[in-house]
C-alpha cells in the first residue's frame, strides 16, 4: 500500500506541477494531447456552453458567458493547488508506511503547502521532515507564480481589448467591413486606413503570441455585448479580402500583410482548441448581400477593378479563412458580425447627448482652412 501511494503521489505531482509550469511559465504552445488543463477546459466549457445554449440570446446570456473566463481561472488555480496538496499527501502517507487514516497526511500536506504551521500534526521522521520542507518551498513558489501570473494575463486581455474598442468609431459596433472602408473613403482617409491595417497586423501577431501561450484568454469576453475580439478580427479580414479583390486607387501591400497575419491567428487558434475548420451556419455574404455591399462601396468611391469577377474572387479569398472563423465562432459562442450594417449603432454616441455629439462630429470640415 505504501509503495502504491508513493507511486501515485509521484505521478500526480509530476502531472499537476508540469501542467502548471507549462501554462504559467512556458511561453510556447504545448503539443502534447493529454494534459490536465485541456481536460479541465474541455469539460467545464462544454457544460457552461450547454447551459448557455438553453438560454435566449440577450444580455442575460452574454453576462452568463462572460463569467466563464474569470471563474475558470479561479477554479483552475484551485484545481492545481488541490492536486499538489493531494500528491504530497500521498507521499507523506507512503513515508509513514501507509498505515492509519489518510486524513492526517492530507491535513499535514495542506497546512505545509500553504505554510500555515499549526503544529498539531508534525512530520514524524527525517524523510517526512525533508518532504515537508520541499512542499513548503513548492507552496511558496506556486503562490508567487500565481501572483505574478494573473497580472500578466489581465494586461494581455486589456491590450487586446483596447484595439477592439478603438474600432468602434471606425467600423461601428458590431464592426462591419463595409462601414470601415466607406468611412475612411468618404473622409478621404485612405492613408489612415493603411495605418489602421498596420496596427491590426501587429495586433494579430500579438494575439498569436499571447493566446497560444495563454489559450484561456479566448474565453474572456469584451466589455460590450455587441463587441468581441473575434468579430473585430473577422471585420479586419473581411476588409482586407475586399481590398485584395482589387479596388481602384487602393494599394494592396498593407492589406496583404494584415490578411496574412490575421489568417495565421485564426488558423493557430483552431489548432490550439483542436477545431476542424467549418463554415458559418449560414452564408455571411449571399449574392443579394454582395450586390448591396458593392453598391455601398461604389457610393463611397470604392469601385472594384474588375466588377465581373469581383464576387468570385472575393468568395475564393473568403474560403481561405471563413471556415476557421466559423469553427472559433461555434466553439466560443461569439458572433462574427455582418459584412454591412444598415443601422449605424456606434457605442460612443449611444448615451445621453451622443446624438448631438455625432451630428457635430459628422458636420466637421474634412479640410479646415
Concise account of the structure shown:
The chain is elongated, with a radius of gyration of 26 Å.
Write out key terms for the chains shown.
single chain, 369 residues, mainly alpha, 2 domains, 15 helices, 68% helix, 0% strand, elongated
Care to describe what's here?
The chain has 369 residues and is mostly helical. It folds into 2 domains: 2-149, no CATH class; 167-362, no CATH class. Helices cover 68% and strands 0% of the residues. It has 15 helices and no strands. The radius of gyration is 26 Å and the shape is elongated.
Mean pLDDT: 88
Shape assignment: elongated
Q: How many domains?
A: 2
Estimate the strand proportion: under 5%
Rg measurement, Å: 26 Å
Order of helices and strands: HHHHHHHHHHHHHHH
Decide which structural class fits the backbone. Answer: mainly alpha
Helix content: 55-70%
| Main sheet makeup | none
Number of helices: 15
The total beta strand count reads 0
Poorly predicted spans: none
Query: Termini, distance in Å?
Result: 88 Å
Task: Please write out the topology.
Elements: H1 2-24, H2 36-53, H3 59-66, H4 68-95, H5 103-113, H6 126-166, H7 168-171, H8 177-186, H9 190-213, H10 229-246, H11 253-272, H12 287-299, H13 307-318, H14 322-332, H15 354-362
Amino acid at each position: 500500500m505504501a509503495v502504491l501511494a508513493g507511486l501515485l503521489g509521484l505521478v500526480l505531482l509530476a502531472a499537476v506541477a508540469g501542467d502548471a509550469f507549462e501554462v504559467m511559465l512556458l511561453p510556447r504552445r504545448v503539443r502534447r494531447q493529454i494534459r490536465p488543463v485541456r481536460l479541465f477546459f474541455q469539460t467545464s466549457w462544454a457544460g457552461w456552453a450547454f447551459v448557455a445554449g438553453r438560454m435566449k440570446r440577450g444580455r442575460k446570456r452574454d453576462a452568463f458567458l462572460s463569467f466563464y473566463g474569470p471563474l475558470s481561472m479561479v477554479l483552475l488555480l484551485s484545481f492545481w493547488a488541490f492536486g499538489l496538496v493531494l500528491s504530497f499527501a500521498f507521499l507523506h502517507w507512503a513515508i509513514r508506511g501507509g498505515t492509519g487514516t489518510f486524513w492526517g497526511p492530507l491535513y499535514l500536506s495542506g497546512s505545509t503547502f500553504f505554510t500555515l504551521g499549526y503544529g498539531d500534526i508534525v512530520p514524524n521522521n527525517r524523510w517526512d521532515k525533508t518532504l515537508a520542507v520541499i512542499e513548503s518551498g513548492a507552496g511558496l513558489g506556486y503562490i508567487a507564480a500565481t501572483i505574478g501570473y494573473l497580472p500578466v494575463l489581465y494586461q494581455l486581455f486589456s491590450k487586446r481589448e483596447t484595439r477592439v474598442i478603438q474600432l468602434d468609431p471606425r467600423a461601428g459596433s458590431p464592426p462591419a467591413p463595409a462601414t470601415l472602408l466607406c468611412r475612411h473613403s468618404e473622409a478621404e482617409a485612405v492613408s489612415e486606413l493603411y495605418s489602421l491595417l498596420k496596427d491590426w497586423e501587429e495586433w494579430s501577431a500579438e494575439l498569436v503570441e499571447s493566446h497560444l501561450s495563454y489559450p484561456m484568454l479566448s474565453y474572456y469576453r469584451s466589455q460590450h455585448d455587441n463587441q468581441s475580439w473575434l468579430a473585430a478580427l473577422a471585420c479586419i479580414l473581411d476588409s482586407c479580402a475586399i481590398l485584395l479583390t482589387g479596388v481602384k486607387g487602393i494599394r494592396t501591400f498593407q492589406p496583404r500583410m494584415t490578411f496574412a497575419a490575421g489568417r495565421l491567428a485564426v488558423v493557430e487558434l483552431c489548432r490550439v482548441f483542436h477545431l476542424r475548420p467549418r463554415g458559418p451556419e449560414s452564408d455571411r455574404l449571399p449574392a443579394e448581400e454582395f450586390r448591396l455591399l458593392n453598391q455601398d462601396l461604389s457610393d463611397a468611391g470604392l469601385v472594384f477593378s474588375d466588377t465581373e469577377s469581383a464576387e468570385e474572387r472575393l468568395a475564393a479569398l473568403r474560403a481561405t479563412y471563413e471556415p476557421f472563423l466559423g469553427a472559433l465562432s461555434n466553439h466560443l459562442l461569439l458572433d462574427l458580425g455582418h459584412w454591412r450594417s444598415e443601422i449605424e449603432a456606434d457605442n460612443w454616441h449611444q448615451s445621453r447627448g451622443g446624438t448631438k455629439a455625432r451630428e457635430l462630429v459628422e458636420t466637421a470640415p474634412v479640410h479646415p482652412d
